[in-house]
Amino acid sequence: MKILVTGGTTFVSKYVAEHFVKKNHEVYVLNRNSRKQIDGVSLINCDRTMLKNRLKGKYFDVILDITAYNEYDIKTLLSSGVEFNDYIFISSSAVYPETNSQPFAEEQPCGKNSIWGDYGLNKLKAEKYLTDNFSPAYILRPPYFYGIYENLYREAFVFDCAEKDRVFYLPKNEDMKLQFFNVCDLCRFIEIILNKHPENRIFNVGNKDTVTVREWVELCYKAVGKDVKFKNVPESYEQRDYFCFYNYEYILDVTKQNELMSDTLPLMQGLKREYNWYKNNRDSIYNRKPYIEFIDKNFS
């Protein structure tokens, strides 16, 4: 296939571009060339909001839109004169209000989530503009992505603590559940959609099983080959000052995904892969939050 990937230089879009290159597809990436490109891609060096005629008359079997965050991002791409057969948009689980019953299902009403704010609303507007103007598009709503090329200081934070045999400071709500989805499973599911073209157009995607915050930290330490000792932090401290997730628990219903793809990568296996990559790619984390510094100043 001839594939257009928006982005292609960081985390999810980078992994997706590389995956389809390795499968011998003809992969084009649309980005500003501010970071090193994946070997084997063809670069369209442009800001997606200022395309002008860069895509006019070009044809792709599928557009994999990883980097659209709002309606304007979708609008500029659809109005660029590009021609395509399929369109898959990576949206977000942030489109579900936290007041919905859980697990969140695709049929539930969408709207503002007070935790994610405008991010979720903008993703929802992007979804609507896309489906209003290209109804056959597929929309995927993931929970937390993880895996190789991760650029957020989440697993890496816990890996750093494990390497130094640090006591780990947990929020008091250590039973808060988290749901993950590995970028390799995203690529598998994209392939299934393109092969089967299911009638359903909106899918929650993610691991069927959730883990508690405590269990997730334990698995991250095990990926490094270490055991962990915990201390709990009083509720008077702001969680995001010392921990990498908001105090917000949600679960997605991924029944429709599982009907097409019954298995996902076990979390322990995925974390081991990510740690083995991270050991040699520590500079891939672009914005290291000062969690450890805060912990040492306030708790040690």
In words, what does this structure look like?
The protein is an alpha/beta fold. It has 2 domains: 2-145 and 182-204, NAD(P)-binding Rossmann-like Domain (Rossmann fold, 3-Layer(aba) Sandwich); 151-178 and 209-248 and 266-295, Alpha-Beta Complex (UDP-galactose 4-epimerase, domain 1), CATH 3.90.25. The chain is built from 9 helices and 13 strands. It has helices spanning 11-22, 71-78, 118-133, 155-163, 183-196, 213-224, 255-260, 267-278, 291-298; strands at residues 2-6, 26-31, 42-45, 59-65, 83-90, 138-141, 144-146, 168-171, 177-178, 180-182, 202-204, 211-212, 230-233. It has a 7-stranded parallel β-sheet with strand order 3-2-1-4-5-6-11. Strands 7-10 form a two-stranded parallel ribbon. It has a two-stranded parallel ribbon with strand order 8-13. Helix 2 links the parallel strand 4 (59-65) and strand 5 (83-90). Helix 2 (71-78) runs parallel beside helix 3 (118-133) and helix 6 (213-224) packs across helix 8. It starts with a strand and ends with a helix. The mean pLDDT is 97.
